[in-house]
User: What shape does this take?
Amino acid sequence: MVNSGHLIKKLASFHAGTILVGAAILWLTLAPHPIGDQEIPLFPGADKIVHALMFLGLCGTFLVEMQIIGKLRKSVAAVATICTILMGIGIEYLQRLMGLGRSFEAADMIADTTGALIAGIAALIFIYHSKTHTH
Assistant: This one.
């Protein structure tokens, strides 16, 4: 029988969750019609919430994996947050350069940054509380 804790640690050490979330984000943000030609009726600004949630999910997944393997530190949280923000900015520029019908929006970069910052700040709070409650 497979030890589920061992399997979770193994998957986290390969950052399988981060890779899956990252691949999904790349597909959703760079494919010309990632969900087909069907329009999903949403309220104004809903796409910005989706952007924030995607990048919160990406940064958060990486940070949770780092916690699982025992390597979550303040410096890791900071670097992961910065890298996630840079990915969001890079995707917007790729959308402009690729010319596949996707649009460059500064508001998307702000939403991506917001999501990554929420994950990074949550990790820092977790680290702080973990240290203050164990000593």
